[in-house]
Amino acid sequence: MIWEAVIQPFADFGFMRRALLGCIAVSLGATPVGVFLMLRRMSLTGDAMAHAILPGAAVGFLVAGLSLGAMTIGGLIAGMAVALLSGLVTRVTALREDASLAAFYLISLALGVLIVSTRGSNVDLMHVLFGTVLALNDAALILLCSIASISVLILAVLFRPLVLECADPQFLRSVSRLSAVTHFTFLSLVVLNLVGGFHALGTLMAVGIMILPAAAARFWANSIGGLIFVAIAVAFLSSLSGLLLSYHYSLPSGPAIILVAGIVYAVSLVLGPAGGLIAQVLPRRPLQN
Amino acid sequence: MTSALAFKDLTLGYDRLPAVQQLRADIAEGSLTAIVGPNGAGKSTLLKGVTGALAPLQGKVDLGSLERDDIAYLPQQSDIDRSFPLSVVDLVAMGLWREIGPFGWLGKKQRARVDAAIASVGLTGLESRPIGSLSGGQMQRALFARLLLQDAHLVLLDEPFTAIDARTMADLIEVVRSWHKEGRTVLAVLHDAETVRAHFPETLMLARELVAHGPTEQVMTAENQFRARQMCEACAGPPHVCGRDAA
Fold first, then answer.
1. CB–CB of B150 and A175 under 8 A?
2. ipTM greater than cut 0.90
């Protein structure tokens, strides 16, 4: 029974195994990045960046067709340009980060739509929007795994400055010059993971696997390590269940994965011991020092 | 007496509107100085000028042989995110940055010093508490423990005793006095005249411009305080005349 429902789809079909591997890679790379996005109160930045990437990928598609390389490079360029320019505007002028980011991603999005419409639209662009996790080829898998490895490595190296930059940026600026470097490296990781994620889940769904597991983890863990661990576990679980649901009930896989993550989030919101609804309502014994 | 830092015709401000004007003063090495003045006198702005967070519009802050990481700064409203999942130990251990940097290991020796700093501000037993659960006074104690570990030659404090209980204030003043005994230079923005008279030998009175600087009993006179208020009121007109409130 369990064999048929859970194992057999992966045992029988190569595309399911590839999809699972792709999702695991995305979960490993994007989810810890999402945890830091959440801790920096930048969850919506992920969404803005995803919009910023879309036109870049679309331009890549128009220039070279459905090519992994062109679309990845296009997305990276558009994403990095928006991240750098909005960061620069924030640091140099009086405009705050949310407003400058919003300005740049809207410009980028409008530009992208304009370019696409003048060159004639194509249904294959649905690939960019909603991803093709069930049709990942070798090159795409290698790209996803490389991005995950790079992310984990950079996060490990950057861990301490990043925690300080999130918790007390003023202090980091007073003791070291790493603040700006940390900030931009982190934004690059966001872009990199979104670009990787769009091959599997589509640009908009890729933000989901970044933010939803992190938001769910907030209700279970009280330390940064704990948050990352729980978030990755939630992302794995959502990927596996989402893929199986889409297999058994012929649902589109990207939305199925994100919706499972959404359900886990909703359950955490209610049941989570760290500030969940029930924990807030129930009287608790005061902490002993 | 050598000076730890010197303000040389220093003008600081925001958007080219001066908040501190033409300040000329020497802060002696090892001195314990209170910076006082009415609201909007430029006291906090002055500390930001010393940390380098704010570039001078004119003149300069001469730090002599001091490097950027010889300076420890406790801002008035620290922008620490209190909901961030950090424990007291994590927060205090940040003070070791100069020693272990971004990649160094927090060894047994360092850990012992973190515990000692926590003990000297009276937070022993709360090491593993999340910072979100601390009271205002406890949080200020933890921030002082972090300052202790920074082991800085120059310590800048901006309204460090505002909104904390008397007991905490007394304990933290002891910490400040111990810095003074160790020969560190301490500059503290304060608004309570009693505290200044009781614990701070030197005072610098500011009202955008320098009002007086020297031994506290000579600076904290009724006449000077009256003059400072008048100078600030004269400046408190439309913002394009004298700059916005920058305290």
1. yes
2. no
